[in-house]
Design brief:
Elements (H helix, E strand, L loop, with lengths): L9 E6 L2 E6 L4 H7 L25 E2 L18 E3 L3 H16 L15 H8 L12 H6 L19 E3 L9 H8 L7 E3 L6 E3 L17 H5 L5 E3 H6 L6 E4 L8 E4 L1
The protein binds FE2/S2 (inorganic) cluster.
């Protein structure tokens, strides 16, 4: 969800027909979680302030226009929120369909094939078909007219521990923020705008090894799309069981998964 609010002042609101009382400043997403309602999301975490970039967590508030992101919208007293109305469900499917149409993973709409949060969420929002033509790899690289695309990047294999495939990236910014917030490093940045925006190592070589990356893996842990992936997982597949532990190496306290 989103980080806990610290206020002592309490606010009561209604979500999907249930009253809930939470500290002022709590996000609607977190208040819903208190009720056991899990709002679909891709870019919100418990450890970092919400950024509101993926637009999957949209909800409706009775008497108000629009569909605000539940991760960035704080609770307000007396409001009635709907997290599963037909309208928000349809919008979520539309958002997910656009992500899926530009995501080169076969079977993204197949729930049994879920190895990234993007796939899990595609199944959760009920995405069954993608009406838009996916962009083929050679078109990404050369464009429909055969001209080389200056924004195309090969998979970055330079880091010894993980790879970065920008074609799977939805530019949610979680990796950039994890790098700054968790590790205090500024190895990653977002370049460009709109459809052409992308995550970059921010150095002329444009790869992880040449950047300030210290290989802490914080970015890989938060990536919801499989764009950043541990090399061991790419080679050997997902472990069938894992534990979360804390590395004693540098004292920063990053958690990492040990198989
Ligand atoms: Fe709220 Fe991404 S989870 S916008």
């Amino acid at each position: 969800g989103t980080p806990a609010a610290k206020s002592k002042k309490l606010v009561t609101l209604n979500i999907d027909g249930y009253d809930v009382t939470v500290p002022e400043g709590t996000s609607i997403m977190r208040a819903a979680a208190e009720l056991g309602i899990s709002v679909p999301k891709l870019c919100a975490t418990d450890s970092m302030d919400a950024f509101g970039s993926c637009r999957l967590c949209l909800v409706e508030i009775e008497g108000r226009n629009g569909t605000p992101a539940s991760c960035t919208t704080p609770v307000m007293p007396g409001i009635k929120v709907h997290t599963q109305s037909p309208n928000v469900q349809q919008i979520r499917r539309g958002v997910m369909e656009l992500y899926a149409s530009d995501h080169p993973v076969p079977g993204l709409t197949d729930a049994a094939n879920g190895d990234s949060q993007l796939q899990t969420m595609a199944a959760r929002v009920g995405l069954r078909e993608i009406r838009y033509q996916p962009v083929a790899d050679h078109v990404r690289q050369y464009g429909a007219d055969g001209t080389a695309n200056p924004d195309w990047r090969p998979v970055d294999e330079s880091n010894p521990y993980f790879t970065f495939d920008s074609s799977k990236c939805i530019v949610c910014s979680l990796c950039v923020r994890a790098c700054e917030d968790v590790q205090g490093t500024f190895a990653l940045t977002i370049e460009g705008r709109g459809f052409d925006s992308r995550v970059s190592a921010g150095v002329s070589e444009d790869n992880f090894l040449s950047s300030d990356c210290v290989s802490c893996g914080a970015c890989v842990q938060v990536c919801p799309t499989g764009s950043l992936q541990e090399k061991s997982i790419a080679e050997m597949g997902l472990p069938d069981r894992s534990v979360i532990t804390t590395c004693a190496y540098c004292g920063v306290g990053c958690s990492f998964k040990a198989e």
